Amino acid sequence: MQNVHFRLLRLAASCNVDSLTGKKKNGTDDFYNVEESVVKKVVILILFICTIILYPISFTYAAVAPQYPWEKTFDDSNIIFYMTPQWLTPGQQVDEDRMKIKSGLYYNETPLINIYYFDGYFHEGTSSFSDDGICFAQIKGTTSGSFDNLTGFAVIFYKNGSLVKSYQVGDLLRDKSKASFHSEGVSWFEKREFNRKTNALTVVTLDERVYVFDIVTGDIISEPPEDNIGVLRRIPVLSISLCSIALLATVVALMYKKGILKLKAPR
């Protein structure tokens, strides 16, 4: 995708102006008498604008961080949650017996007694658990996506190791100009807090919207009021931009053809 920009520029530089404009040799129509250099500049300008619009889409990052085994214990409870890596980086040293324990919740006895298994992996600092370990939420501070494609998972809720509900970045971050795009992906929230007594997860996005989730159900129990940005964000910005450019080019061409606009060749 990144090569599209260079191909567009090469196309602009090497395009056959006669074939693009339909220039006639008899020169009787004003539309076909437009100076070649001017037409070429217009074509290059249009392609350059398209390149700028398409540029953010070509960068869709997916953060890949090393996986490590970790455990979480719960106060006043004989249970423990084990997270086991699904893959290891070359040279990574991990105890073989530890790797045999499948990810999930267990009674902390000898031997371990499984309560539920979890198919997947997330890092320890990204999760919030209920006191019984049955329900938990994973919040992804860095996720995949691009400026026009904020579809990476932001918050995911589980119960007994199974998916309950999930939200994408675009569902929560309304002003996507506030998103932080970097080499590891897209960052979308400023801070989070978890209240263990109420199982309420509070998240503040980079555009200063405050959401409160119930980690048991995955529902939003408090959110900012809907606004115009929330409606407009659902409209494909790229489609509108490209259609606007095409409409503008058509109007200009018709004005030249009807003689409304004329360009004089330099002498």
Distance between the termini: 43 Å
The topology string of helices and strands comes to: HHHEEHEEEEEEEHEEEEEEHH
Low-confidence stretches: 1-6, 15-25, 54-63, 228-235
Q: What's the arrangement of strands in the largest beta sheet?
A: 1-2-3-4
Oligomer: single chain
> How many discrete domains?
2
Helix content: 25-40%
Specify the overall morphology: elongated
Count of helical stretches? 7
Task: Tell me what portion of residues adopts beta-strand conformation.
Answer: 25-35%
Rg, nearest Å: 28 Å
Characterize the biggest β-sheet: 4 strands, antiparallel
Mean pLDDT score, rounded? Answer: 77
- What is the number of strand segments? 15
Structural class: alpha+beta
What would you say this structure looks like, in words?
The chain is an alpha+beta fold and 267 residues long. The chain has 7 helices and 15 strands. It has helices at 3-14, 17-21, 36-54, 96-99, 169-172, 228-232, 237-257; strands at residues 70-73, 79-83, 104-107, 113-117, 127-129, 135-139, 142-143, 153-159, 162-168, 180-182, 185-187, 189-195, 200-205, 210-214, 220-222. Strands 1-2-3-4 form a 4-stranded antiparallel sheet, with no helix packed on it. The chain has a 4-stranded antiparallel sheet with strand order 5-6-8-9. A 4-stranded antiparallel sheet has the order 12-13-14-15, with no helix packed on it. The two termini are 43 Å apart. The relative contact order is 0.11. Residues 1-6, 15-25, 54-63 and 228-235 have low confidence and may be disordered.
